[in-house]
Amino acid sequence: MNDRSDAAGSPSDEADESPSIAPEALADRLRSGDELTVLDVRDRDEFERWHLEGEGVDAVQIPHVRFIQAQATGDVDELAADLEEPILAVCGRGEASAHAVGLLREAGIDAANLAGGMDAWADLYVARELDVDAPATVVQYDRPSSGCLAYAIYSDGEAAVIDPLRAFTDRYVDDAADRNATIRYAIDTHVHADHVSGVRALAERTDAAAVVPEGATDRGLAFDATTIGDGDEVQVGDATLAAVATPGHTTESLSYRLDDLLFTGDTLFLEGVGRPDLERGDDGAADAARRLYETLQDRLLELPDDAIIAPGHYSDAADPRDNGTFVARMGALRDRVGALSLDEDGFVERVTNDLPPRPLNHERIVAVNLGLEDVDGETAFELELGPNNCAVAD
């Protein structure tokens, strides 16, 4: 990410001198819902493309050049007059925002800098073990900047990673090594439209099998992979992952069941359901919504109340467990997710109207994930920055 305003002359070492908040601390702060003014000093186009959001967050964009001008005129306090304290300043790499924080604090304003900027925020990846009764150790990976979740399943010295992100391939490899486990499978629940899949990269690094739904072939799959469908199983040590067809968000979507734990990808979330318009656009959204309705009614709502749903994303509306993980029992979701209690027509209307903007670069991301386009790591990282927007929230 380019921190264009750094060129205006702020010394980079100010990032080390200004009071700062680490990305990990910011994640905790956002989860708390405490009020916070986020002052984004990047240019308007960078801000509009992607900026910090969350409950209690008031995001304000004032370009860094205006702070340079205010420094010259002595009007920094006037520039920040309408900003509620405390203030967290952000930019691309944490340098221009550090300069702004220094000026704000000189003016007596409570401000701190996001250490490393939005690049460091995008790089934050948190691993937590699920506290669930399962025949394997399950680790949930959380990328707070986008709400993307991935999972590693460990059993008897073997591992599988579900919905890995390409940007964190090394992390999965290192974590498996720390557990003395061999990664046997890299699995995608569907063809993702919001992030670049790590299935191929992880398979290349580890000789694991790249596993994708058989329906990905119909969408143009252009790389060698093991394709599986409804009822097929993947053996990970002593644990068995059973594929369950859950179409709707996309035609090929699969979920994976590990006893009473179900990894639902983008089919069912803790606060909503998958959006139906990413594969075939607005024209195909209603038909996809009807398939999703059938999936939810005939497959997921047939699960017992104590079954645990492990989704592929979460939003600001989702409440984590006490240990910070994002899972919930099916019984709780029956009551919490209003779309699950609608009739078919009401459901279709609900999930096709007033949808949020589609994920940035979604068509190109799909092409990359099918193997129809190759991009380098930096381009892949840039393509997926921003909110995932794969859910229809209640």
UniProtKB/TrEMBL annotation:
GO molecular function, one term: metal ion binding
Organism whose genome encodes this protein: Natrinema zhouii
Ranges where the Rhodanese domain occurs: 32-130
Coiled-coil ranges (or none): none
Top-level taxon in the UniProt lineage: Archaea
Keywords of the record: Metal-binding
Keyword flag Metal-binding: yes
Matches recorded under InterPro entries: Metallo-B-lactamas (IPR001279), Mito_Persulfide_Diox (IPR051682), POD-like_MBL-fold (IPR044528), Rhodanese-like_dom (IPR001763), Rhodanese-like_dom_sf (IPR036873), RibonucZ/Hydroxyglut_hydro (IPR036866)
UniProt-annotated stretches for the region Disordered: 1-24
GO biological process, one term: hydrogen sulfide metabolic process
Identification of the protein by name: MBL fold metallo-hydrolase
